[in-house]
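Q: what sequence does this backbone want?
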């Protein structure tokens, strides 16, 4: 388990620091998981400063509350769960993916790879090995299916030549196309993100994925329909989460995504004003900044023109006027929260994920901790 903290510093730059990598028991309890978090937070003296924890452990919600922290499920993990539940809902899709996993496993053999390479040369196809997958992660499965689709003629030639009972039917090949086009809806939206990005991206990304899946459904893609249903189930109450809605509302690229619904908009306004009043009480007598009318300050922000999606939302808050200081400090609280618990360049790259897993399996825990600590914090000034 690697713990990374995220914050916005005084120059309004979002910074991320790797704190520690610690081994977990093979069978660990939620209390043990949170206990490790508390231990590391105490070591760094930041327990009272932590506002929210992003993790891929849904079982630990109660323990997190007891520690005084809110829990945000890992976005990457939730998308994997959406995909897994979609497969479980239909034996046809599940069996298709399992069959493709067996094909990739067969061609992981060196001898079979040689046969595949010769077939690729004969058919003038790219000389690439098949991508492997366990079949329960959306991106690794997408990589696997795309490679099988690309190489299906070479694969078929080898399987027929050596009488291997793994041939795909024409119907199965069509379903592979439907599955890959559906999962590409995830990839097209997620692949544009940086290593770490704000929680404010989640609701806009979910809306973008929904739109792409809806287009696929209209063309008769049954897998896209199942995927959309599971996605809607997991994010049906997303706008009831203050961390999601407030971070989005305070990101001037996406603000109107959550202000378009009257009930959500009213709750956001009420919560932000309450946060501003709390800050005023905490800083009364210690700050030269004079509080403005909080309703007026918030209304000024809501009337601002939206930023383009490729602009930095933190730059907007960097030099607040005195009357907007309270609102900018609320933004500082909500905007540094990241939308995934693990680095996106590993979470969405199967080859890097496999490399890290292989290294972790044979490294001393102390050495691994130091390697990840130094690598994660290499940008720091000496």
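A:
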């Amino acid at each position: 388990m690697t713990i990374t903290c995220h914050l916005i510093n005084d120059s309004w730059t979002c910074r991320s620091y790797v704190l520690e990598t610690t081994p977990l028991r093979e069978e660990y309890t939620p209390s043990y998981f949170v206990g490790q978090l508390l231990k590391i937070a105490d070591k760094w003296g930041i327990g009272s400063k932590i506002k929210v924890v992003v993790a891929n452990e849904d079982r630990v919600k109660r323990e997190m509350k007891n520690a005084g922290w809110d829990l945000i499920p890992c976005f990457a993990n939730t998308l994997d769960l959406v995909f897994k539940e979609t497969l479980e809902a239909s034996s046809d899709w599940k069996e298709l993916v399992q069959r493709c996993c067996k094909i990739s496993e067969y061609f992981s053999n060196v001898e079979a790879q040689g046969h595949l390479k010769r077939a690729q040369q004969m058919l003038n196809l790219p000389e690439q090995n098949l991508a492997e997958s366990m079949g329960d992660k959306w991106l690794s499965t997408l990589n696997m299916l795309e490679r099988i689709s690309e190489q299906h003629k070479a694969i078929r030639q080898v399987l027929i030549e050596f009488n291997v009972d793994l041939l795909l039917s024409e119907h199965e090949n069509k379903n592979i196309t439907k599955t890959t086009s559906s999962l590409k809806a995830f990839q097209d939206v997620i692949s544009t993100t940086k290593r770490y990005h704000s929680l404010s991206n989640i609701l806009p990304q979910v809306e973008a994925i929904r739109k792409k899946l809806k287009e696929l459904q209209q063309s008769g893609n049954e897998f896209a329909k199942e995927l959309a249903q599971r996605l809607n189930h997991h994010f049906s109450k997303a706008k009831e989460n203050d961390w999601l809605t407030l971070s989005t509302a305070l990101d001037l690229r996406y603000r109107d995504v959550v202000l378009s619904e009257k009930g959500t908009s009213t709750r956001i306004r009420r919560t932000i004003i309450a946060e501003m009043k709390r800050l005023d009480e905490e800083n009364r007598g210690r700050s030269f900044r004079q509080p403005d009318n909080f309703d007026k300050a918030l209304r000024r922000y809501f009337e601002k023109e939206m930023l383009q999606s490729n602009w930095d939302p933190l730059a907007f808050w960097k030099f607040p006027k005195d009357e907007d200081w309270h609102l900018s400090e609320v933004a500082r609280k909500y905007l540094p929260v990241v939308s995934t618990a693990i680095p996106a360049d590993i979470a969405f790259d199967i080859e890097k994920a496999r490399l890290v897993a292989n290294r972790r399996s044979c490294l001393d825990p102390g050495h691994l901790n130091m390697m990840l600590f130094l690598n994660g914090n290499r940008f720091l000034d000496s």
